[in-house]
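Tutorial, part two.
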Amino acid sequence: MTIFYDPEYEKVSELVSKYMIYDEEKKEFIIPKDAPKEVHEAYKRKKEIWGKYQEY
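Running the prediction step on this input gives:
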């Protein structure tokens, strides 16, 4: 298992974690629609960064 450290990932994760809730039906964490726009953008960026590191 490879561990990565990306300061941007840490920053967006910290912002997003306050808003994430678990959706029982979908069996995944989601961001509520009423969350601020910057949280939704940060969540997208978090997924992009995570995907980049999955390629290794």
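The radius of gyration is 12 Å. In part three we will examine how such features are distributed along the chain.
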